[in-house]
Amino acid sequence: MKKVITYGTFDMLHQGHLNILKRAKALGDYLIVGITSDDFDSRRGKINVQQSMMERVEGVKETGLADQIIIEEYEGQKIDDINRFGVDIFAIGSDWQGKFDYLSEFCKVVYLERTKGISSTQIRSKNNHLKLGLVGKAKRLWKIANEAISINGLDIVGTSGAGYDRRLKKLDDYSFEELIEKVDAVFIESDIKNRYEQIKYSLERGKHVLCYLPMAIGRSQQHELLEIAKKNDCVLMSGIKTAYSTAYYRLLLMIKSGEIGDVASIETTCTSLDEVSKIKNYQKNDIWSAMDAWGATALMPIFQILGTDYVDSMIVSKKIDGYFDLFTKMDFVYKNAVATAKIGKGVKSEGEMIVSGTKGYAYVPSPWWKTDYFEIRYEDQNRNKRFFYELEGEGFKYELVNFLRAINHGRTLSYTGNDVLEEISNVYEKFYDGKDVRTI
Ligand code: CTP
């Protein structure tokens, strides 16, 4: 029996895929189709695949052409598969011409003609043409604008509040209302005091919103926004990019599955340092305080892992002008655990995250909020494990792709639960009210 193997993502199965599967099958008697796992695709930079691995597997299965379907999960797996399954022919489309010649040491390599004029990329951009607006200051928006360029199906149509800035390339700046008219969705990273009104305005006009946290001050305002989104069939998602990075998401899953036992403590630290002279003029220089810049990021893993039912909390803040906090430490006491978030704008520290458990601990080195790497460490060091998941750019791409996916699927993806969003807004309310806050 002659065995043939072929590989691909097979996203939104199209005629080109059908043709190649038929041609590959015709080369032998038994066809094995390797379908890339979501992880493998995102590691190799193919991050805007629309269908999940299971959906893609189903698509190939339905063609009835595959005798066996396998999942491709790692670099170098093709050699293992060829040997393991006793494959005679490796077949792939002509767009890969020459790329797999190295496999001819193990089996025959055949490049099959690619069908012209169709690809998953093309279908994706036709289906998901989304017009996105960016709201906020240029210095906070240019990175996301740059990373968005390479996402197909996403067009950035302009900014509001950014003014002209050469880092934003040729994007036009509009009034907020004008921008909302032009777009299907907005990314908001404006000053905290403006966000609630901006989000409400957008949602009421049927626009999807991706917004930095907090979205509003206080639980009830945040809750109201979530309700408005639901009523208007709009997606409202957290714009903190950390939540969408593979490494961070994996870390959460591992902790939740008991890898380090019961969690007893979480410590998160996020700081960035601005010059004292600039900070003194923070309003003119448009500098966010420690809480405005870092609070939500540092709080997010605490509420995601331990939940929001803490029994006690204390916030200590080192402020200037009674408003601008240079450094803030937030402590939370739960029934069986404690947590601390330390954030700084005029104080610098090691930006790491440590989650301690009864069996071991998770260590994410600085800067943990841009993480591609973490370790699970145990008493017996030989058991320590290291995990690395490549992060392209600063990770804005992943949040945009997930936002796009949520819009296409017609529902908000729960990377950051509503309870977490509401609790973060609640802490900001306490902070601004000065309730439970000690100032030093
Ligand atoms: N293929 C083909 N003809 C096309 C599109 C794909 O023969 N018009 C082949 C590829 O050469 C490959 C297999 O189908 O052997 C799976 O390709 P995949 O990367 O999943 O499909 P694309 O449509 O090329 O996807 P993308 O646009 O995301 O790169």
Automatic annotation (TrEMBL):
Transmembrane segments: none annotated. One of its GO terms (molecular function) is nucleotide binding. Residues 175-239 form the Gfo/Idh/MocA-like oxidoreductase N-terminal domain. Residues 5-125 form the Cytidyltransferase-like domain. Keywords: Nucleotidyltransferase, Transferase. It comes from the Bacteria. Gene3D superfamilies: Dihydrodipicolinate Reductase, domain 2, HUPs, NAD(P)-binding Rossmann-like Domain. The keyword Calcium does not apply. This is Glycerol-3-phosphate cytidylyltransferase. The lineage of its organism: Bacteria, Bacillati, Bacillota, Bacilli, Lactobacillales.
